[in-house]
Design brief:
The complex is a heterodimer of chains A (186) and B (396).
Chain A: H1 4-36, H2 42-58, E1 74-84, E2 89-93, H3 102-107, H4 109-118, H5 127-137, E3 145-159, E4 165-167, E5 171-179
Antiparallel strand pairs in A: 1-2, 1-3, 3-4, 3-5
Chain B: H1 2-15, H2 21-41, H3 45-49, H4 57-63, H5 71-74, H6 79-98, H7 102-119, H8 126-138, H9 149-156, H10 170-191, H11 194-198, H12 201-205, H13 223-242, H14 247-267, H15 273-279, H16 287-302, E1 309-313, H17 318-330, E2 336-340, H18 341-344, H19 348-351, E3 359-363, E4 366-368, H20 370-380, H21 385-395
Parallel strand pairs in B: 1-2
Antiparallel strand pairs in B: 1-3, 3-4
Helix pairs in contact in B: 2-6, 6-7, 7-8, 8-10, 8-15, 10-13, 13-14, 14-15, 20-21
The chains are: A alpha+beta (186), B mainly alpha (396).
Chain lengths: 186, 396
């Protein structure tokens, strides 16, 4: 038989639990939309800053802006130009989805996503790591790599005045050059 | 008065008890999606997350500041440890799928999911984000209350009967809320873009060579069709974000959503994303509808599964009653019928003295005792088929 004290204690725990769950629900129902809706009012931005540490820590951060506000209008792919210590050169191409078979394209798609991020100037901090990784690929070559250049080949999709579309000729841009050290090849 | 009705509606929405089957089924599908994601990543576990990965852990921490739940920060940065991490992750996802130590494994799966995302945020897509957020709320859900080993263990221990106990769906509601928010936010972002409003957006999307998957008929790429497609996408994303909460519209919208995602799965190479999102549709299906669907499958599958059997047992034994409860829970195709020996006053001549365990299986070929009884059950009940495997070898 539960004593009066035990009954009161259990009831107290149930109330506390109910309050905690409701607080949890209210917080997330308000905070998640504040985090991800494209609203830039001062209040929303302030709320976003307030919840940022919690969202980053838990992994609740999110954005749902795929193909928006406008889809990208450029076809591109990345290559690495490798200059060896004897002056010879070679190319290394990131896996290109359109050249892969259906199954490989499916499980290698992360490379496309990685390239997409690599091309953004705000992610320039990734470039040395990417160049080092390419250099390590070639660490077993008879002549070690001295420089790795990351370059993008791109072609724009543009809308003509009559509403039809065309693709521009392929262009190339070297966006990063990295001098390989002996340490990088270990 | 208004506050009161709001509180009542809130309580009814989040706390009115309902069948745990939708959230349990979501758990099973969610677990399988995590397993599939890990297997697809398998060739590149070390390339993306290893000690010498494309992006080093220190670079990641420099670029993405702030305290984050990330197991990679605490485990030694050697390839062996990282491989071990993934095997533990995979094992936990399997255990979550079968519903063994569900709460613990949902926590481990969440920790691992968030860790791999935090370890390399530059390869994650919307599907990964959705899995991660859903995993967070799944920790709090009654995901092991049905379709789980945990439930079978509870039945065996006498803590639960074969009849499912209703649960409070507040955590399930948060995953539903997240899904509708995904669509609504996607709609809001797109509505800001001129190409979506003008209807040219899909032309660009389907001319991105690296994103295309399987070929589309040429008529689909006609500007007018793409224009209609762009606007339909906006309309459907808004509807799935907002109108999905209107019960009368839900079935139609879910069906349209399924068609949209299947089309995207066919035409665009965005691995797992469509399945990750579709998995949460289960949570919008009423448990009664799921039951109707299951009954339909059961009736149509019955003819392929073999003869139904009768289990005769002595109800005076507590152990027998628990076995029967367990079998009832496992017998999802209703292949068994149960007869109490004492209540019916029959069967006792079959039970004694050959069957000290006081439970037997009556088959068209006669009563089965001991190990033959296990094989007979194994053959009749699909979830027990593994038990029938030794019988095949014994015959050979």
């Amino acid at each position: 038989m539960a004593t009066d004290f035990q009954r009161k204690k259990r009831r107290g725990l149930l109330i506390a639990r109910s309050i905690a769950i409701n607080a949890f629900l209210v917080f997330h129902i308000v905070a998640i939309p504040f985090w991800c809706l494209p609203i830039s009012s001062a209040l929303v931005l302030e709320c976003r800053e307030f919840v940022r540490p919690y969202f980053l820590w838990t992994g609740l951060f999110q954005s749902w802006d795929t193909f928006s506000p406008n889809p990208v209008s450029t076809n591109n792919y990345l290559e690495a130009l490798i200059i060896y210590r004897d002056g010879s050169t070679g190319y290394w191409t990131f896996p290109r989805m359109q050249l892969l078979g259906p199954s490989e394209r499916y499980y290698r798609e992360r490379y496309r996503k990685f390239e997409e991020n690599l091309l953004e100037a705000e992610h320039s901090g990734l470039w040395p790591d990417a160049a080092r990784y390419v250099a390590r690929f070639h660490s077993g070559d008879s002549v070690p790599p001295a420089t790795v250049m990351l370059l993008v080949r791109w072609s724009n999709i543009i809308q003509r005045d009559d509403g039809t579309f065309e693709r521009t000729a392929w262009d190339t841009h070297v966006f990063f050059s990295y001098t390989v050290t002996a340490e990088d090849l270990k | 008065m208004k506050v009161r009705s709001f509180v009542e509606a809130w309580n009814a929405f989040f706390f009115a008890e309902q069948s745990p089957v939708p959230i349990a089924l979501f758990r099973v599908v969610f677990g399988m999606l995590v397993i599939a994601t890990l297997l697809l990543l398998r060739p590149d576990w070390l390339s993306w997350y290893g000690a010498h990965a494309w992006v080093s852990l220190s670079t990641m921490q420099t670029l993405e500041k702030g305290a984050r739940l990330n197991v990679f920060v605490v485990i030694p940065q050697s390839d062996a440890w990282i491989e071990a991490f993934f095997w533990v992750f995979l094992a936990s996802a399997v255990l979550l799928t079968v519903g063994f130590l569900t709460r613990l494994n949902s926590l481990i799966v969440f920790l691992c999911l968030t860790s791999i995302d935090q370890r390399n945020l530059y390869i994650t897509h919307g599907g990964d984000t959705f899995l991660r957020v859903a995993a967070f709320f799944l920790i709090f859900a009654a995901a092991g209350a049905a379709l789980s080993l945990d439930r079978l263990i509870r039945i065996w221990r006498g803590k639960e009967g074969a009849k499912l106990r209703p649960c409070r769906p507040w955590a399930q509601r948060m995953i539903q809320f997240e899904l509708s928010l995904v669509y609504f936010v996607a709609f809001c972002y797109k509505a800001e873009g001129l190409s979506w409003v003008q209807g040219t957006a899909l032309y660009y999307v389907y001319n991105l060579d690296e994103l295309r998957r399987f070929p589309l008929p040429s008529w689909f790429l006609h500007p007018m069709v793409l224009k209609l497609g762009s606007w339909s996408t906006l309309l459907l994303e808004f509807s799935l974000g907002v109108l999905i909460w209107v019960e009368d519209l839900r079935s139609v919208l879910l069906a349209l959503g399924v068609l949209l995602h299947l089309f995207l799965e066919y035409s665009l190479n965005i691995p797992m994303f469509q399945w990750d999102i579709l998995s949460a549709y289960i949570l919008f299906v009423d448990a009664a509808d799921l039951e109707r669907l299951w009954n339909w499958i059961r009736v149509h599958a019955a003819s392929h599964i073999g003869e139904p059997l009768q289990v005769i047992y002595d109800e005076a034994s507590e152990r027998n009653c628990r076995i029967v409860e367990l079998l009832t829970a496992l017998d999802i195709f209703h292949r068994l019928s149960f007869r109490k020996m004492r209540a019916s006053g029959s069967g006792s001549q079959l039970l004694s003295p050959k069957t000290p365990e006081q439970i037997l299986v009556s088959t068209p070929a006669g009563p089965k005792y001991g190990i033959d009884r296990v094989f007979a059950l194994g053959k009749a009940v699909p979830l027990l088929w593994p038990l029938a495997v030794p019988a095949i070898f014994r015959r050979q």
